[in-house]
């Protein structure tokens, strides 16, 4: 069983697919569910896969894994590293890698689904196993819901799932309340007036405008968000110009904003709009800039009572303590299923960090220091160790499902 799952993991890792292009991954997941006896529907919300297994009366538990990979060139040096390529959203050819570990999520859920199917005396009710496309662009959960997920397959009483993280492998971590930040992706177009690089007085330089804007945007969190609140504002994309001696016509910025409450979100997005407009005015821009929110993830809120109930189950899945990671600044669309169903969500972290990195660390501070040494999700060097990550992830899903479907 575990050798078979490890092989499945390496296979998925070698064959990553970008958001909404997870056709091979979906077919593999569907095949696993069929083999385990699930009623399987493919093509839900694009490439999504739903497996239903009814086992007497009782509640409905939704178990979710996301399937998509990222436009990243893998640099892990693993013998099963990806060399795959795909077409990015801007139409450009790109390297593709499972730099967020969704291949681990798919493998764990395939393993858990099979184990639950083969042990029907340990639970009663209905399992709704969901392999979701396009988590990375925030569209997959909504696409499945818009395709009638709840009407066609049933309304869950709980939504359960996990994300692999750079914690020690085998450690499970779950937070109550706002567990994952809400996220907004913002595109800004700054308009200047182009010309010859030798005659700046005839131009409005959008490169300088962009630079000034980036610097002032970094004052928002430090000066406008209360010390007791949390937010992240980063500029991950800055594009302008084609040649050294040409002042370009425009510049483009791409921002990521993370927040946990609507009030902080509004404050930060309001400040972004104000600063972008203000800097453009200060530069004498010939046209107003454009600010567009192109992607929004609401925060993932873990239901407190449901977390308590699930934490006890998770504790049976690992010999290590189940820890509270505190709020995570990463974002997730898994909460959309719970919100649509009016059901509690419990979404936990699954440690995948190489145990060798943590060797000799015994205090929480020492472990925290070592975590900082590990590549984070989305890094070209991110990859969980297969074991004990995989076995723990399968056991966690199985234990959580049995808890919610207790006979
Ligand atoms: Zn990710
Ligand atoms: Zn992810």
Automatic annotation (TrEMBL):
Residues 182-280 form the Peptidase M20 dimerisation domain. InterPro entries: Amidohydrolase, Bact_exopeptidase_dim_dom, Peptidase_M20, Peptidase_M20_dimer. Pfam families: M20_dimer, Peptidase_M20. SUPFAM superfamilies: Bacterial exopeptidase dimerisation domain (SSF55031), Zn-dependent exopeptidases (SSF53187). This is Amidohydrolase. It comes from Pseudonocardia nematodicida.
């Amino acid at each position: 069983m575990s050798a078979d799952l490890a092989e499945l993991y390496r296979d998925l890792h070698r064959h990553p697919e970008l958001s909404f292009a997870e056709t091979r991954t979906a077919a593999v997941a569907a095949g696993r569910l069929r083999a385990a006896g699930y009623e399987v529907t493919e093509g839900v919300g694009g490439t999504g896969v739903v497996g239903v297994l009814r086992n007497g009366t009782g509640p409905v538990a939704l178990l979710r894994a996301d399937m998509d990979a990222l436009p990243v060139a893998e640099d892990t040096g693993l013998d099963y590293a990806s060399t795959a390529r795909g077409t990015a959203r801007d139409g450009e050819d790109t390297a593709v890698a499972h730099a967020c570990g969704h291949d681990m999520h798919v493998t764990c859920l395939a393993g858990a689904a099979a184990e639950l199917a083969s042990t029907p005396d340990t639970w009663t009710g209905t399992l709704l196993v969901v392999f979701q496309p396009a988590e990375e662009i925030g569209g997959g959960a909504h696409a499945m819901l818009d395709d009638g997920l709840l009407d066609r397959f049933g309304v869950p009483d709980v939504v359960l799932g996990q994300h692999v993280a750079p914690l020690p492998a085998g450690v499970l971590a779950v937070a109550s309340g706002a567990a994952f930040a809400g996220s907004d992706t913002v595109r800004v177009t700054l308009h200047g007036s182009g010309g010859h690089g030798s005659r700046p007085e005839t131009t409005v330089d959008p490169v300088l405008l962009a630079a000034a804007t980036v610097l002032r945007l970094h004052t928002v969190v430090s000066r406008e968000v209360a010390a007791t609140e949390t937010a992240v504002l980063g500029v991950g994309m800055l594009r302008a110009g084609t040649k050294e001696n040409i002042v370009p016509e425009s510049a483009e910025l791409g921002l990521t904003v993370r927040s946990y409450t609507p009030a902080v979100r509004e404050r930060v997005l309001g400040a972004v709009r104000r600063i972008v407009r203000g800097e453009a005015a200060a530069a004498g821009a010939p046209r107003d800039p454009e600010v567009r929110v192109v992607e929004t993830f609401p925060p993932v809120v873990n239901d407190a009572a449901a977390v308590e109930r699930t934490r006890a189950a998770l504790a049976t899945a690992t010999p290590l303590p189940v820890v509270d990671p505190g709020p995570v600044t990463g974002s997730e669309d898994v909460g959309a299923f719970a919100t649509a169903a009016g059901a509690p969500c419990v979404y936990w972290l699954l440690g995948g960090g190489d145990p060798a990195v943590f060797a000799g660390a015994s205090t929480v501070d020492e472990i925290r220091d070592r975590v900082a040494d590990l590549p984070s999700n989305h890094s070209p060097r991110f990859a969980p160790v297969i074991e004990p990550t995989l076995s723990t992830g399968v056991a966690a899903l199985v234990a959580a499902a049995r808890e919610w479907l207790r006979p």
